Amino acid sequence: METKEHIRKEVMKVRNALTYEEWQEKSMKIQQRIINWKHYEKAETLFLYRGLGREVSTDVIFTKALQDGKKVFFPKVHGRELCFYEVTTMDEFLPGPYGILEPITKKKEKKAPDLIIMPCLAFDKERNRIGYGKGYYDRYLEKKEGLLTAALAFSFQMREKIPAEEKDVALQYVVTDEWIMGEKI
Fold it and tell me: Tens of pLDDT along 136-148?
């Protein structure tokens, strides 16, 4: 079986080779799936991420969620942990420790979200996910059982098998430009 590091490098190489137009088109398809999805429609609070490089964009989801009156939170790194802060405009971000845009607001989450949408480097049919290897989302999800989780990824990021470890938290859904993979809830 391939190592996580090998999978990361391989997927990042393919993802980074997308043209701007390909990336934009595929990101739009994924975002449209989300905003037309029953779990998005039911959610009053939503945790999102700001994409880095050729990660799936969430800008359309963010804009639509605000128009729909949803509360939207984004992650900020504090040591080894993620904390989520409410954001109401695109102007409320600055680059964080890894170059990822993080919220500058002080309105911290008080309760669990109705839906948490996270980035993903690779996934498999069991909905195991590989991120960037720091474990931030796994640690967060470990403490907050029962959250409705979805990762956004391009369909080519799917792998036959991801080497999952005990500390890794499997996703309920993976939303791609071609399908939504997940449990029936």
Answer: 888 888 888 788 9
